[in-house]
Amino acid sequence: MNPRWATLFAGLSLVIPVWIGPQLLSNVVFFIPDTALTGVSWFWLCIPFGDGTASLVLAQFVPMILFFVWNPRLLLGVARVPKRSYALFAVATILTVLYFRSGWSDGMSYQGSKYTNAFLGGNVASIALLGLLFARNRKREPSFSTNLLIHWSLFAWLAWFAFPFLGAPTWP
Predict the structure, then answer these.
(1) Which range, 4-18, 104-118, 140-154, has the best average confidence (pLDDT)?
(2) Which pLDDT score is estimated for 59?
(3) What does the pLDDT average to over 95-106?
(4) Is the CA virtual torsion 35, 38, 44, 46 positive or negative?
(5) Distance between CA 42 and CA 57 in Å, rounded?
(6) DSSP string for 40-73
(7) Taking residues 77-101, what's their average pLDDT?
(8) Which residues pair with 35 in a beta bridge?
(9) Where are the domains positioned within the chain?
(10) Interval 1-56: pLDDT, tens
(11) Is 45 exposed, middle or buried (0-12, 13-18, 19+ CB in 10 A)?
(12) Spatial CB neighbours of 30, under 8 Å, sequence gap ≥ 6
């Protein structure tokens, strides 16, 4: 497959779970993207647009946009993973651990054990998968497909599981 089309498909696919999750799977807690990436984006988009619904729809496109902006060389078929992606993964992992450590009691109190444990499990699984992908990539010859998989997985984790809302339920 052409690297440009593969990258476009991968980037656009980041919108699908964010969009259909709340509409179709609202009873399955870990399909609802209730994370800082979409939540903070929604908040900041409410300022210029003023409408919560329109801003929420636009916020769901933020992970996809960041995917393309973070590594535009994927569109050219570049095989090497940039060092900034390793740094982003390391910093996000450390911050996620600290975030869960500081917000655990609030998550259990306000969101409940099912929600909090589901997001913890999603984070652990995502971090383990990404850790394996990054480690494997350092030891082998770089390939475009591995680069694409690493970046798609990284931004899917940031959109779906990293930094979930653990406080009092104040979302609309």
Answers:
(1) 140-154
(2) 73
(3) 93
(4) negative
(5) 8
(6) HHHHHHHHHH--HHHHHHHHTTHHHHHHHHH-GG
(7) 96
(8) 164
(9) 3-160
(10) 799 999 999 999 888 766 554 444 344 444 445 677 776 666 666 666 666 666 66
(11) buried
(12) 118, 119, 121, 122, 160, 161
DSSP type of residue 112: -
Number of H helices, E strands in the chain: 8, 0
3-class DSSP state of 35: strand
Across the range 83-103, mean pLDDT stands at 96
**pTM across the whole model:** 0.84
CB 67 within 8 A of CB 11: yes
Residues in the chain: 172
Q: Shortest CA distance to 158 belongs to which of 78, 62, 79?
A: 62
3-state class (DSSP) for residue 147: helix
- Distance in angstroms (rounded) separating the CA atoms of residues 172 and 98: 27
Tokens of 162: 């990293």
Sign of CA dihedral 58, 63, 67, 70: positive
pLDDT of residue 146: 95
